[in-house]
Structures are given as structure tokens and as C-alpha cells.
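Protocol step 4 of 5: obtain the predicted structure for the target chain.
Materials: sequence only (see below). No template structures provided, no constraints applied. The aim of this step is simply to have a reference model before the mutagenesis design in step 5. Sequence pasted as it appears in the construct record:
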Amino acid sequence: MCIRDSLYIDDAGRFKELPLNERASRMAQKDIRGDAFVLSNHDDPALEDWGRVDCPLERFESILANPKQATPLDTSNQAAMAAASAAREYDTKIVTAEEAEEAMKSKADGNTAFGNQDYKKAAEMYELALTKLMARTDLLENGPELETARIACFSNQSLCFIKLGDGVNAHKAASMVAYHLDPTNHKAWFRLATANLMNKEFDAARRALQQCLVHGSAGQPTPDSINLLSQIDAAEAAYTQAEKKRYSKMFA
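Step 4 output (C-alpha cells):
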């Protein structure tokens, strides 16, 4: 059962100069003035099931002791926004047992094609699997296996697109893992850094590579990361030099 909690406050509390509500402020991680109250509800959009549930003292004390940390969403980051949008969409759908079986077969076919270095076919097979897996898997007995498969399909698909020289789609696939499905997946961050390099997004490539190191090697450089960083620096230098040359001709 998915239990969600809502904190109801007086939006005009500050303007009314109401006293600080320390407990509500702690829960909301912001300055709350005046009275506030907590409501809990069961909310499962995939099953279209919603209803109020009790919020006992134990739950309230747990929320107060461990307030949820809000994760700000950078609206200028199109990849993160797309991943968030996709997450909201598939939370309303359910994977059936038949779809799960078909998806796992497509994933296996993708792995075989990748092993044969047929990256185009592999990417297509991973996409076919994802069309079945982009929905709720937790209601099935093998839900954890399917969730792992979904992450692998996106990550492997990203690598296929890198092999094919398609930076745009490599970025899209890696972003789904790095920004939503498994933000601690260092391989996804490495592939996202590589895709950013291919797309000449050099600063974004460095940021993604840093996340790769944080989650993969406790922040310590690895031979692969050192090599990729050298490629980023060299590509940026060459790009900057080419741009300077191009503009110098325009205004000569």
C-alpha cells in the first residue's frame, strides 16, 4: 500500500504575522506560520485506488523525526524533466505477466545481438522490451527482476547508441537511469558523460563524470574516467579553437 502524507497550512500565515510553527516548519523544511495539520491517504494511480487512512501518533513522530527532503527539479535540464514526466506516466500503468515474459525475451534477444556486435538490432530489441516494461512492476512476483531488467535495457541501449555514434539517443537512454530509475548507477552516469561529450555538452559531460566517480569509486579517479576527461578537455579545446577561427573569418 502506497501511503502519502500531506501538510495543510495557512498560506497567508506570514502576512498575518502568526507565530512560528516549529514542528510544521521541520516537516516542510521551510518557515511555516500558524496552525497546520497532517493528513495521510492511500494513493495508487495504477489501480485507481484512493482513500483517507489514519495518521497515528507513531507515524506523525516518524515524519517529524525524518522529514522528507524535497529534491529540486532543474526545469532547464530537459533530460531530467523528460525522465520525471515518463516516471509519472508509467506510475499509472501495470505490467501484466504476459508482457513481462515478452519483455524478458526481447531483452535476451538484445543481449544476443549486442554480443554479435549488431548494435542497431540490439537497440531495437531493448526498445521493444521497454515498451512492455515502462509501467508498474511491483505487483508481480518477479517485480524486482523486472525493475533490474528495465534499468539494464536503458543502460545497454545507451551503450548501443554510443557505439552507433548517436549521441542524442544515447543521452536520452542514459538519462532515464541516471536521473530517475537508479541515480547511483555509475555506469549510467559514465554513459551519460560520454553522450554529452558526443553532443559537445562539455560542462554537462564533466558533471556526469563526477557523478560517476561519486557512485562508482568514492570520488576517486579511475583509468577510464581519466581517459574520458582527457577526451572531454581535448574535444572542448578543439571545438573552441574551431569556433574562434570561424568567427574570425566572419568579422575579418
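Step 4 remarks: The first strand starts at residue 3 and ends at 9. The two ends are 68 Å apart (CA to CA).
Proceed to step 5.
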